[in-house]
């Protein structure tokens, strides 16, 4: 990947479900070393866009290139192996397992041992397990949970469980981290803590793309914003540029009876909506 090549480059991306375009002709880039927020009204196609990038859905049109490599037709585990990891709207962790065991699961995509290795406890299996443990502990250090590694994940606070989910993704050693509504269900103090963690991860060399409804978080955290509406891109730029874009203002004003979500006053209104957002509707 040359300096001029974006980390992620999608061209004419689209997918149809039952004759309807969930995402249509989206061309956008996600640069390295930045936080890119994907926003839009309910049903805009944000989570579907994430599903396409991460290999959960196969597009019906367009291409996806990551670090210059075409990954359009790769399966999910192949996308993860290339360096893209993802969290989900709901905290997908194993509550009965330890925090460390959860993080180790995320690292297993990097290991080579197979079923017979696991059954026979071969040298390769033992080596992979040691590497997974070390990689998981490193991920837990990054999210501030190393000291709680042996606690059951379900014993942690909502914020702690969110951090476990992020650690699971970090354990696969990604270059691009996709966060799907990371602040859902969190109170203002927890949200501020999460913002600080995300910024710290990017300062440490990670690139982040996130879908989020809390506009105060987006405007205070994102380096750039991609706006989707009815499955299509209507704007991309800095928070200041996007908040002044007439198409963006119109999209939000048209979908919220009491005004849009853009700007300072509207951001508070977006936060007041809590997590009602887009779950299951993107």
Largest beta sheet: what is the strand line-up? 6-7-8-3-9-10
Computed over alpha carbons, the radius of gyration is: 19 Å
- The fold-level CATH name of the largest domain is Rossmann fold
Q: How many individual β-strands?
A: 10
Distance between the termini: 31 Å
CATH superfamily name of the largest domain? P-loop containing nucleotide triphosphate hydrolases
Keywords: ATP-binding, Nucleotide-binding, Transport
GO biological process, one term: D-alanine transmembrane transport
GO molecular function, one term: L-phenylalanine transmembrane transporter activity
Protein name: High-affinity branched-chain amino acid ABC transporter ATP-binding protein LivG
Verbal overview:
With 282 residues, this protein is of the alpha/beta class. The protein is globular, with a radius of gyration of 19 Å. The C terminus is likely disordered. The strands form 2 sheets. It has a 6-stranded mixed sheet, with helices on both faces. Strands 2-1-4-5 form a 4-stranded antiparallel sheet, covered by helices on one side. Helix 3 runs parallel beside helix 6 and helix 5 packs across helix 6.
């Amino acid at each position: 990947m040359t300096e001029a090549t974006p980390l992620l480059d999608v061209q004419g991306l689209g997918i149809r479900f039952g004759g309807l375009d969930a995402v249509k002709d989206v061309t956008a880039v996600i640069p390295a070393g930045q936080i890119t927020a994907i926003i839009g009204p309910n049903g805009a196609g944000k989570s579907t866009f994430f599903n396409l990038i991460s290999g959960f859905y196969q597009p019906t049109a367009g291409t996806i290139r990551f670090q210059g490599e075409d990954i359009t037709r790769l399966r999910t585990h192949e996308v993860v192996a290339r360096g893209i990891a993802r969290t989900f709207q709901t905290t997908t962790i194993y509550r009965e397992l330890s925090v460390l065991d959860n993080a180790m699961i995320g690292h297993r995509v990097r290991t080579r041992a197979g079923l017979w290795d696991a059954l026979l406890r071969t040298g390769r299996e033992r080596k992979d397990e040691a590497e997974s443990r070390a990689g998981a502990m490193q991920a837990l250090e990054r999210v501030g949970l190393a000291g709680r590694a042996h606690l059951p994940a379900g014993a942690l606070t909502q914020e702690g469980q969110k951090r476990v989910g992020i650690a699971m993704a970090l354990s696969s050693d990604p270059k691009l981290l996709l966060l799907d509504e990371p602040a859902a269900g969190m109170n203002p103090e927890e949200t501020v803590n999460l913002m600080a963690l995300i910024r710290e991860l990017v300062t440490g060399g990670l690139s982040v793309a996130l879908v989020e409804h809390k506009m105060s978080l987006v405007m205070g955290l994102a380096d750039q914003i991609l706006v989707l509406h009815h499955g299509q891109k209507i704007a991309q730029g800095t928070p200041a540029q996007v908040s002044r874009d007439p198409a963006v203002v119109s999209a939000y004003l048209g979908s919220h009876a009491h005004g849009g979500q853009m700007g300072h006053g509207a951001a508070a209104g977006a936060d007041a909506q809590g997590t009602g957002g887009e779950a299951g509707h993107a």
